[in-house]
Design a protein that fits this description.
Elements (H helix, E strand, L loop, with lengths): L1 E2 H7 L5 H9 L3 E3 L2 E2 L6 E2 L6 E3 L2 E2 L7 E6 L28 E2 L8 E7 L2 H8 L7 E8 L4 H9 L2 E2 L2 E2 L4 E8 L2 E8 L6 H8 L4 E9 L2 E2 L8 E3 L2 H8 L4
Parallel strand pairs: 9-15
Antiparallel strand pairs: 1-4, 2-3, 2-5, 5-6, 7-9, 7-17, 8-9, 10-14, 10-15, 11-12, 13-14, 15-16
Helix pairs in contact: 1-2
């Protein structure tokens, strides 16, 4: 027996958390009957599960690492007709979703998958998955100012968690450095830099947990190896 929301996540419907919301909205049927209880368990080999009138079943998991270009939104569709990251992926029949998001004007490492359970692990704050960004800011912040990024910056939604600044380089009129965080607030890196008085002019995510962009040019993608997938799944252990 398996919990309904977990089965839905394995079927690529949505993450486990979003699947729970879909259940409580009365959009799920088990053997023809609407189910709204989150504790419901099913037998994957016998029970028929429908979401919004469509029968679902477990599908083969796909794990993709994309080097996202600027000018694409991190979504599967856009009502305004903007280009989406899923439009860059060719020849994949499964319905894949981005893990977390990168802003329209931010480039770099993005994972896409139909594994809702793994998406939950990688995006839930309790797992504190590290994400490293290559940040270019306007001007020359001192080491003391950059230290503020490490100790925490007070934003409208609260104080940021401790972070790491490394590989600082100063060139022409700008400063470039790596910033490693484990939170996932909206436009967090940009807001942190704005707060210390040095706005971002270029932002690229170069690492996510154990993964990096080695060998991938902008706009290119590849499938994760079994070893890489295992490393991501081990994050919750």
């Amino acid at each position: 027996m398996e919990r309904l929301q977990k089965y839905m996540a394995h079927a690529g419907v949505a993450s486990r958390r979003k699947s729970e919301k879909i259940i409580t909205q009365g959009r799920v049927k088990v053997n023809g009957k609407i189910v709204t209880e989150l504790g419901t368990k099913i037998d994957p080999d016998k029970d028929i599960v429908e979401v919004d009138g469509r029968v679902i079943s477990k599908e083969k998991y796909v794990y993709i690492l994309l080097n996202k270009p600027v000018g694409y939104i991190t979504s599967v569709s856009d009502p305004h007709g903007r280009k989406t990251v899923t439009g860059l992926i060719k020849g994949v029949s499964q319905r894949i979703y981005p893990v977390g998001r990168l802003d329209y004007d931010t480039s770099g490492l993005l994972i896409l998958t139909n594994d809702g359970e793994l998406t939950y692990v990688l995006t839930h704050p309790s797992h504190m998955v590290e994400k490293t960004y290559r940040v270019e800011v306007k001007g020359f912040p001192s080491d003391e100012v950059l230290k503020k990024l490490e100790t925490g910056v007070k934003l409208k939604d609260g104080l940021t968690a401790p972070a790491r600044v490394s590989a600082v380089k100063r060139k022409e009129k700008n400063t470039i450095f790596n910033l490693t965080i484990h939170e996932g607030r909206n436009r967090q890196v940009r807001r942190m830099c704005d707060k210390i008085g040095f706005p971002v002019v270029n932002l690229k995510r170069i690492a996510f947990g154990p993964l990096n962009l080695k060998g991938l040019k902008t706009g290119q993608y590849r499938f994760l190896t079994e070893k890489e997938v295992k490393a991501l799944k081990n994050i919750k252990e």
